[in-house]
Amino acid sequence: MEQTLIKRVDRVLEHKGSILDIYTDYMELPDGKIEKWDYVEHRKGAAAVVPVLPDGRLLLVRQYRNALERYTLEIPAGSRDSVTEPTIECASRELEEETGYRCEHLEFLLSLRTTVAFCNEMVDVYVAQDLIASKQHLDEGEFIDLEPYTLEELCDLIYQGVIQDGKTVAGIMAYKCKYQK
Fold first, then answer.
1. In sequence order, which residues have a C-beta less than 8 Å from that of residue 80 and are 6 or more positions away?
2. pLDDT in tens, 88-132
3. pTM value?
């Protein structure tokens, strides 16, 4: 199938943030018209982890999210320290920082793009089993509560619309498909 050609003719930086930049893209459409599209560049990428407790429950974090003006329930995640940091190292760091657990072996689960219509953010998701108690190291201004759930409870929360975070939904459902046959 032949694709219709759309091309960017200009990109203008509108705002430079700490983890992302916001641009206006000027796009030439197949009919020759120029349209403005929003583009958000997530500079470093991110990683997330599905922590599995010894009893099989999954450990999630509850934290306030300004964009939604409410608390959310999510798998631990965070941005890479640099574009060259391997996502497995980021996932390992975020696991310990946010939950107070570490893991000797993280297993890759999936890669996802969070919002392909206007953002390039990429998140690699890992699974952490055989957790080892350590110490939580929250960032300044970060307040997190830990909550363990069974896989069945989490699936119910997803289908009820309580859990809506894309990386969390994808991570939990991929974990269910791969590990709970």
1. 44, 45, 46, 47, 87, 90
2. 999 999 999 999 999 999 999 999 999 999 999 999 999 999 999
3. 0.91
Cα(11)–Cα(142) distance, rounded to whole angstroms?
A: 34
Cβ proximity of 90 and 13 under 8 Å: no
CA-CA distances (angstroms) from residue 101 to 13, 67, 110, 151? 39, 28, 21, 19
Backbone dihedral angles phi then psi of residue 42, each to the nearest 5 degrees: -90, 110
Q: Examine the residue annotation and report whether 140 is marked as an active-site residue of this protein.
A: yes
Total length of the chain: 181
Residue type, 2: E
Tens of pLDDT, residues 37-67: 999 999 899 999 999 999 999 999 999 999 9
CB 23 within 8 A of CB 49: no
Are 99 and 146 in contact, with CB atoms under 8 Å apart?
yes
Q: Are the CB atoms for 102 and 134 separated by under 8 Å?
A: yes
Q: Which of 140, 147, 152, 153 is catalytic?
A: 140
